[in-house]
Design brief:
DNA binding, DUF2087, Arc Repressor Mutant, subunit A, DUF2087 domain-containing protein, mainly alpha, 242 residues, 6 strands, transcription, 7% strand, Sig_transdc_resp-reg_C-effctor
Length: 242
C-alpha cells in the first residue's frame, strides 16, 4: 500500500477503506465493511503500538524524524506536562517548550509548502508527470523516468483487469514496460512482512504463468529482497536517503 497517496485522515487513523473494507495501513489486515472503529483501534494498539506510534515510527524515506524527535512526539502524545517530561529527560521545561515550538513551526512550513505545491502542479500535464515508482535501484537511470501517461497505457496493454488479482497477458520486451509491469505486480504483495518462497509464489502464480521468471525480475530490479539461502523474501523499503 502506497501510504503517500492516502489522505491525512487515513494516516492519522492508521487504516483506510480498500474495496469498502477497513484495512490496516501497516500490515494489510482487513475487516468486514461495517466493523466498528473501536475494533480497528484495538488492533492498532495491540499489534502496532497505537496509531500515533505507528505513524511516528513509519519506515519510509519520507519520514525524516530523528530518534530523539520520535521519542519527544510519542511523549507529547501522552499528554504529559512539560515539567514532568523535562524531569524525565533531564532538561529544563523551557527546553521542552522550545521543542514544541519547533514542531509547530515545521508544521506551518509543511502546510504552506503543500498548499504551494498543489497550486503549482494541480494542472500538471499527465504526459509529463513522472510515475512514482515505489522502489528503485541505488543508481537509477533513464529507464526509470516514466510518465504517468506512459504507465497507464502500458498497464492497459499488458494486464487484464477483469480478474482479481490482475492477470498479465504477456511479458513486455522494453525495459520501461518491464518496470511498469513490476511496479503493478509488487502492489499485490503486502509490505513489512517476510515470506517463504512458496508464499511469494502463491501471490505471483495467479498473475502470470511464468511466476518464477516474475519473481526473478522482481529481485533483479530491487522490488523484492531475499536472504542468501532463499528462505525469506520481503518487499524492498526505500532508504530514507534516496
Amino acid at each position: 500500500m502506497d501510504l503517500t497517496k492516502l489522505t491525512l485522515t487515513d494516516l492519522q487513523h492508521g487504516w483506510t477503506l480498500v474495496d469498502r473494507q477497513p484495512t490496516c495501513l501497516y500490515c494489510g489486515k482487513n475487516w468486514p465493511e461495517n466493523t466498528a472503529p473501536a475494533t480497528l483501534q484495538a488492533h492498532l494498539a495491540q499489534v502496532h503500538g497505537g496509531a500515533i506510534a505507528a505513524l511516528i515510527d513509519l519506515d519510509s524515506r519520507y519520514n525524516t524524524l530523528t530518534a530523539k524527535q520520535r521519542d519527544l512526539l510519542k511523549a507529547f502524545a501522552t499528554g504529559i506536562k512539560d515539567r514532568d517530561l523535562a524531569e524525565q529527560t533531564g532538561v529544563t521545561a523551557a527546553t521542552i517548550r522550545h521543542q514544541k515550538f519547533t514542531f509547530r513551526e515545521k508544521a506551518k512550513q509543511a502546510k504552506l509548502y503543500l498548499a504551494t505545491y498543489q497550486a503549482v502542479f494541480a494542472q500538471e500535464d499527465p504526459h509529463e508527470r513522472l510515475l512514482d515508482v515505489p522502489q528503485h535501484p541505488r543508481d537509477p537511470d533513464d529507464r526509470w523516468l516514466i510518465t504517468e501517461d506512459e504507465a497507464a497505457k502500458t498497464l492497459q496493454r499488458y494486464f487484464d483487469f477483469t480478474h482479481d488479482p490482475v492477470q498479465l497477458k504477456r511479458w513486455p520486451k522494453k525495459q520501461k514496460a518491464v518496470i511498469v509491469v513490476l511496479t503493478r505486480i509488487i502492489a499485490e504483495i503486502p509490505t513489512h512482512q517476510q515470506f517463504t518462497e512458496p508464499q511469494i509464489n502463491a501471490y505471483l502464480r495467479p498473475i502470470y504463468f511464468d511466476y518464477t521468471m516474475v519473481r526473478r525480475f522482481l529481485i533483479e530490479y530491487h522490488f523484492l529482497q531475499r536472504t542468501p539461502d532463499g528462505t525469506a523474501y520481503w518487499r524492498t523499503v526505500p532508504n530514507r536517503k534516496d
